[in-house]
Amino acid sequence: MARGVEDEKDLVEKDIFCAAALAAAAFDDSPAYKYMFPGGIEERVDFLEWLFERNFYMLHGYQDDYDGLMRCTYDDEAKELVSFLVLADSSMPRPGLCALLQVGIFAGVFKCGWGGVMQRMVATKDWFDARYKEVIGNTYMLLLERMTVLPSYQGQGVGSRALGKALKDADAAGLPCILSTQLARNVTFYKRAGFHVVDESVAPEELGGYQNWIMKREPTVK
């Protein structure tokens, strides 16, 4: 483990923006987000920080009921968050109107305009939801999302350690894990962790026409 890096902890509210900023910087080159926000990289990162912060505040409200939902690793010496991931239970209820209002998600209409970014975001989410529904149906499982490591800590085993702990917990619960990615390099990384591709598809041209892989890992029974 990298020097000074602590064991995994649950994300606390005061660090939500740090986690959002870390995830935004990691996912700015995602083809899906490039389609949603085709502007310059600085504007896209700003949008993603806002989007992820809203999303993480919403998930924070579920942490008492879903243990290990948002996981992070800190460097105790540098006093900074160095890795983050979401491991969401598929039984989690969809957020209602009140929850969306509380975290300010509808402010995106004023921030970005409905006819552009927000409309593309909704269309993209609908397509991903449909792909997941077709591939996994109503299977009870864990959804791995937003996994990222601070660039200066990459290559030191921080991400592999955090992912390994999450997968160990999934094994203990006897639950499969699923994820989606639009980057081939991520497919290679997750295959090393025991995931395999269960669906390879291309988004419709009107949604960006990018490649998408859905990957699944079955629990290891000891």
In words, what does this structure look like?
There is one protein chain. β4, α6 and β5 (177-181) form a beta-alpha-beta unit. The longest helix is centred in the middle third of the chain and has 30 residues, at 107-136. The chain has helices at 16-27, 31-36, 41-60, 97-103, 107-136, 158-173, 184-192, and strands at 9-10, 70-75, 80-89, 142-149, 177-181, 196-202, 211-217. The model has no long low-confidence stretch (mean pLDDT 87). With 222 residues, it is an alpha+beta fold. α1 (16-27) packs across α3 and α3 crosses α4. A seven-stranded mixed beta sheet has the order 1-2-3-4-5-7-6, sandwiched between helices. The protein is globular. It is built from seven helices and seven strands. The protein is 45% helix and 20% strand.
Quick tags:
7-stranded mixed β-sheet, single chain, 7 helices, 222 residues
Number of helices: 7
Poorly predicted parts: none
% residues in beta strands: 15-25%
Q: Strand pairing plus helix content: what structural class?
A: alpha+beta
Instruction: Tell me the series of helices and strands, N- to C-terminal.
Output: EHHHEEHHEHEHEE
Report the sheet with the most strands, covering strand number, pairing sense and barrel closure.
7 strands, mixed
Lateral arrangement of strands in the main beta sheet: 1-2-3-4-5-7-6
The helical percent reads 40-55%
Mean pLDDT: 87
Radius of gyration: 17 Å
Cα distance spanning the termini: 25 Å
Q: Tell me, what's the shape?
A: globular
Number of strands: 7
Short description:
The chain is an alpha+beta fold.
